[in-house]
Please model this.
Amino acid sequence: MTTVFVVDDEKEMVDLVQIGLKKRGFVVVPFSNGTDALAALHEKDVDVVVTDLNMKGMSGLELCQQVVAARNDVPVLVLTAFGSFETAVGAIRAGAYDFVTKPVEIEALAIAIRRAAEHRSLRGEVKRLREVVANTRGRGELIGASPAMQSVYQTIDQVSATDATVLITGESGTGKEVVAREIHNRSKRKNGPFIAINCAAVPEQLLESELFGHAKGAFTDAKTSRQGLFQQASSGTLFLDEIGEMALALQPKLLRSLQERKVRPVGSESEVSIDVRLVCATNRELEEMVEAKAFREDLYYRINVIHTPLPPLRARGGDVLLLAQHWLRHYAAVFDKKVVGLTAAAAERMMAYDWPGNVRELGNCLERAVALAHFEEIQVEDLPEKIRSQQPRRSNTLSGSDVPELLTLEEVERRHVIRVLEACHGNRTDAAKILGLDRKTLYRKLLRWGVGDE
Model:
């Protein structure tokens, strides 16, 4: 529940606002002057401060300035009977998040408070994720704390200890090669080469020579013998990206090489032994291709020893902001620009977007945003138009109202925490690690939401 400090030297006004906000589910702490409110600010957890502009002693603008100085994470809403442009400018300059004119309409005030509370929560999340990214270690270029990525990490840890062939599947841009490199870097072959080739990028006539090599005189331009990628990757890992694009005619040759652990260079009469671990990737449904006779069934089972599916970015929740912060730091260094974070509004738009191009599209977005940025934080205006135009996701309408309401970040957080807890089979220690929370903090949240018996 959102806790609100209401500050006004008119008792009738405080009582009116307090009653109206309590009916709408807010926790209201009333104050008759700014001095007492400021003192309580250091002792109580508060989400939003609502203050009258004209008060005896400390004015609303003075209180606003001191709240911003002491707790710049707490947004301030200023109530004023004037509503003039000058008043609005004065309030914003003092650091107010927004202002509401008198006579106060409680529903309008409640909406403004919810927006301010959501803004605060999102700013806090951005800050937390920035710290998480700064402290991320041990996963190479892989960034993510979502349950979906925890499953990927677990698979990587398991397969890295073996030489089994791995098939990585997922939409374009999900980071299949990054995962392949991480498997290699954590394996006993880490000191050997990691060789990658995109099967879709090489013409069919050349792919056989690229993979298996060729003998001198094998074809017109073969003036010397050349080792193929299987030999070049000796003692290491060969990564075949977009394996689903490999021509049917070449597939039995690949299958024989995997089964016999030997390759026959094009134009050669002898075979060469190979010592290589194979990792393949595709964004296509190979099982459907097998049924359609577009991919050999025997090769499919030979490369699909360990299947590692990668989740699309839209299914990874808060990882969007984790990755955004990672890319932001990277491109800030590349462009030598002092850009350190995202505004809450920009983060909100990014969370609302579906990212059909996945991590690759997100990286492109942040490269553009950092290049165009004029401030230390990425603004909504720095994002591509298709992301700027995204509206926050909405929940069902409130009972008794036809006006749709934004799903609060508190509710988003509650649902996400419960989902992670379920994925961890109720293990709160594991859930806290995945969520990036201290265990006691998680326990307090669960208590507040009435989850469990702690």
